[in-house]
Amino acid sequence: MEFFMTYILPVLVVGVLAAIFAFCLSFLGEKLAIDRDARIDEIERNLAGANCGGCGYPGCAAFAEALFKGEAKPDRCNPTSAVNKANIARILGMSEEKSRETVAVVHCIGGNKCRNKYDYQGYGDCESAQLIADGNKACELGCMGLGSCSESCKFDAISVDKDLGFAIVDSPKCTSCGACVAVCPKKIIGRIPKDAKVYVACSNTHRGKEVSSVCERGCIGCGLCAKNCPTGAIELSNNLAAIDYDKCIGCEKCKEVCPRKCILPFDMHDNAAKRLKNK
Amino acid sequence: MSIASIITIVISAILTDNIVLSKTLGICPLLGTSKKTDSAVGMGLAVTFVITVSSVVCYGLFKLLDFWNITYLQTIVFILVIASLVQLLDIVLKRFSPTLYNSLGIYLALITTNCTVLGSANMVIDYGYNLLETFVFGFFTGIGFTMVLILMSGIREKLNRTHIPKPFAGFPIALIIAGILAMAFGGFTGFAF
Fold first, then answer.
1. Is the Cα dihedral B58, B60, B61, B67 positive or negative?
2. What residues in B contact A25, CB-CB < 8 Å?
3. Which of the four pLDDT bands, split at 50, 70 and 90, describes residue B193?
4. Which domain holds residue B148?
5. In this complex, do B102 and A58 lie within 8 Å of one another by their Cβ atoms?
6. Is residue B192 part of a domain?
């Protein structure tokens, strides 16, 4: 009995425990395995595999899954070649769409027209300013103009205009790599099709009154653009106009009716900025 | 067992006897996953979850070992439990809560070799807690761990924006800060409730 208690029992206890755990794990592992469609893997193989996150998903695997579920379109990914995109479209059984070239755009023209909450005297880029009470702009979704985006740009395509106080994309140089989109702490840099005629130059989702109390230029969500759009391409969501570029025909009606002049023509973003400056 | 003893356990697990700053366990995740607040929160959540469950399971198993007088097997059995538990969580979360699984990410697997988990399972035994106290201790040890991780990541995010002398940049300054934090938390020592 003592021999059993001293030598056999410990071995038994550990052995049996390990066996129980191993059994449970392998049983559950099989039982709860996720049925993964082989097509998802095939889509992932066709993606660029850079895991850059430019599409807004954590990596190529997550993007492949989103593609499979129909949540995203292949043209969200820039690095993937046109041939592979066609392959993906074939796997998904989609009609082959001509994917549009995109370009980055800063959805804010507040700049110096937007009130400062405090005088920032820190290290000097947007990320560090953002750490102090969400940045020095009274508008929490306004460009601070401290240039984290231009630092991140490898193509010298985005820069901050000191007189205007916000970042401006030099569209011909922009490759839509997404570096500035990722680095902006306010998340106000987006991508729009290169052939877009207009863009919404504000990201503030607050109500009109709050917007106008902090910024002279921001979208107040009045909805005039949506009402006047002949193709219904503009929708108001969260007190902010959003343009569906698949429907937009480029009539620029929205630009004319906007009382805040924050829907701007996009015959190159920086031209728009220059025009603003001249006013 | 009273409310007072529970409150004492909560306060000591978070402040006076913080697992990282006072017991110096889990220094590796403290340095490794405190560069960004996002990952600090992810790691903290995962550890809290695993500590709570594993403390309770280990408590039950220790009773069994104690019954057979083979408590010297404690460490090896606890490691077995923790490793299997993490694997189990991995499988279950992947299936039933992909959102949580994705937010915990790689940190879930890293916990297998995290000494805070084994440490708190051992401490529960040393302190002679009962089941409820074990649960409370496990959970709030995890909360204390999360808090220190978030504190560290906040400070380190700030540090990235300052000009640190070259020999101190990176891990050295992180260790110095961990030391200062530990000293600050030392101020809580001796509080009795």
1. positive
2. 84, 87-88, 91
3. low
4. 3-186
5. yes
6. no
